[in-house]
Automatic annotation (TrEMBL):
This is Sulfate ABC transporter ATPase. Residues 4-229 form the ABC transporter domain. It comes from the Bacteria. Its main location: membrane. Transmembrane segments: none annotated. It is found in: Cell membrane. PROSITE patterns: ABC_TRANSPORTER_1, ABC_TRANSPORTER_2. The keyword ATP-binding applies. The keyword ATP-binding applies. GO terms for biological process: response to antibiotic.
Length: 297
């Protein structure tokens, strides 16, 4: 069942077209990634879905409801990760959780969230005194305190050290295991690969691809080597090989499946001696660059 359905979403600011017909759906229980270069409309899209901005065209359904017309009922069932500036410096951790819990009809017990997110010993600490990682965990706990069916997380692990990032990923997997659908706006390829069931890649106000991270990366790999001696012929026709390019004695062969074994066996059979052999797997980052024409930053 789709918990979010966005069809032909359009939004302009003055003469700037920010969303130019965005469509996607998010299935119940999945972690859905939103990925794209800066300024391509990711935040605008998510804020329209949350009911915080009014679209100029298209339709949005969140749990079957229109986020503008049924704003209160939508907000009751979603959780949104706050940004740094949205909490006063001197609010205590428990006060923030208690306050946000009060906005919902059936919130979670925030004491449990303190334990789960490793904040129990910080319950009386003031927000302004927390470390970057603790603030981040508090924002996630606040997004979950309303016991939402859908949680929107933005820049989930920005500012966390590698260990804290891994710990956060594990907790987000538990959130999914608990049946919460997660929409994740991220700038980190490793995070998207690790967490997302499916990803929408945005570019210039459109969705240019939607697939699993592995599906986006594609099955094609690259093999590079330098020909030292012998004449290399017939590689193009080998099973799995999709392309061969040559510059002097440097060769790049692309292919799928077990093409590299076929190529090395072929070279050995024809007494072609090679050096500097490397095989690169195409990554999500390569796919991103190919789809958007921009490298990730
Ligand atoms: N309220 C606004 N008024 C005018 N222009 C806006 C407004 N909000 C966003 N924009 C512009 O709309 C475009 C898309 O912004 P948006 O924040 O949706 O992109 P994004 O993909 O989330 O970018 P980032 O990754 O940098 O957060 C940008 O060019 C931005 O400057």
């Amino acid at each position: 069942m789709a918990v979010i359905e966005v069809t032909d979403l359009r939004k302009r600011y003055a003469d700037l077209t920010v969303l130019d017909g965005v469509s996607f759906s998010v299935e119940e229980g999945e972690i859905f990634g939103i990925l794209g270069p800066n300024g391509t409309g990711k935040t605008t899209t998510v804020e329209c879905v949350e009911g915080l901005r009014r679209p100029d065209g298209g339709t949005i359904r969140v749990l079957g409801l229109d986020p503008v017309e049924d704003a209160r009922r939508v907000r009751e069932q979603i959780g949104v990760q706050l940004q740094q500036t949205q909490l006063p410096e001197n609010i205590k951790v428990w006060e923030a959780l208690d306050l946000y819990a009060s906005f919902y009809a059936a919130p979670r017990d925030w004491r449990e969230l303190l334990e789960e997110w490793g904040l129990a010993d910080k319950r009386n600490a003031r927000f302004g005194k927390l470390s970057g990682g603790q603030k981040q965990r508090l924002f996630i706990a606040l997004a979950l305190v309303g016991n939402p069916r859908v949680a929107f997380l933005d820049e989930l692990t920005t500012g966390l050290d590698p260990q804290a990032r891994r710990a956060t990923w594990e907790l987000i997997k538990q959130v999914r295991a608990g049946g919460v659908t997660v929409v994740l706006v991220s700038h980190f390829m490793d995070e998207v690969e690790e967490l997302c069931d499916r990803v929408a890649v945005f570019n210039r106000g459109r969705v240019v691809a939607i697939d699993t991270p592995a599906g986006l990366a594609g099955g094609e790999h690259r093999m590079r080597f330098t020909v030292m001696t012998g004449e290399m012929t017939g590689v193009e026709g080998l099973p799995g090989v999709t392309g061969v390019s040559r510059e002097g004695n440097r060769v790049v062969v692309t292919g799928t499946g077990d093409f590299a074994t076929a190529v090395t066996a072929h070279l050995a059979r024809h007494q072609v001696l090679v050096s500097d052999l490397r095989i690169d797997k195409r990554t999500l980052e390569d796919a991103f660059t190919a789809l958007t024409g921009r490298s990730f930053d």
